[in-house]
């Protein structure tokens, strides 16, 4: 659902441009499809930067733990590192406004079968 919303936001942003790029999918060995990645996202740019940020945050958490000898919540280091990597990648690619404008689509409410 999130990738569909991102694609529709991208399509509406593209306006009347005739060079709207398609999406790519990969198929798993069992025949199911993995997540669709809009070509405008450059394939693995965000994934690679997020993984690099995660590794940097994890190394920082381990280093602080070794230096202080006291346990630290790893998310204190992981969250800023990954969000910083995503933000830096989006800014470098000129997609920061698009990243910040993303809205999660609302789920359709299903009727409760136990209620009349």
How would you explain this protein's 3D organization?
The longest helix is centred in the middle third of the chain and has 24 residues, at 45-68. The protein is flat and about 60 Å long. The chain has a two-stranded antiparallel sheet. The chain has helices at 2-14, 45-68, 75-93, 96-100, and strands spanning 23-24, 37-38. It contains 4 helices and 2 strands, in the order H-E-E-H-H-H. It is mainly α.
Shape verdict? flat
Major sheet: arrangement of strands = 1-2
The fraction of residues in strands falls at under 5%
Q: Count every beta strand, where a strand is a DSSP E run of 2 or more residues.
A: 2
Mean pLDDT equals 75
Radius of gyration: 19 Å
Order of helices and strands: HEEHHH
Assign the structural class, choosing from mainly alpha, mainly beta, alpha/beta, alpha+beta, or little secondary structure. Answer: mainly alpha
Query: What is the terminal separation in angstroms?
Result: 29 Å
Number of separate helices: 4
Q: Percent helix among the residues?
A: 40-55%
Low-confidence stretches: 13-27
Biggest sheet character: 2 strands, antiparallel
């Amino acid at each position: 659902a999130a990738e569909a919303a991102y694609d529709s936001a991208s399509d509406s942003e593209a306006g009347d441009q005739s060079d709207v790029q398609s999406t790519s999918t990969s198929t798993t060995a069992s025949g199911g499809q993995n997540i669709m990645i809009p070509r405008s996202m450059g394939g693995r740019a965000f994934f690679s930067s997020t993984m690099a940020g995660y590794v940097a945050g994890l190394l920082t958490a381990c280093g602080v733990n070794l230096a202080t000898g006291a346990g630290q919540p790893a998310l204190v280091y992981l969250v800023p590192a990954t969000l910083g990597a995503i933000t830096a990648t989006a800014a470098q690619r000129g997609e920061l406004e698009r990243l910040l404008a993303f809205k999660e689509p609302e789920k359709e409410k299903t009727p409760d079968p136990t209620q009349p």
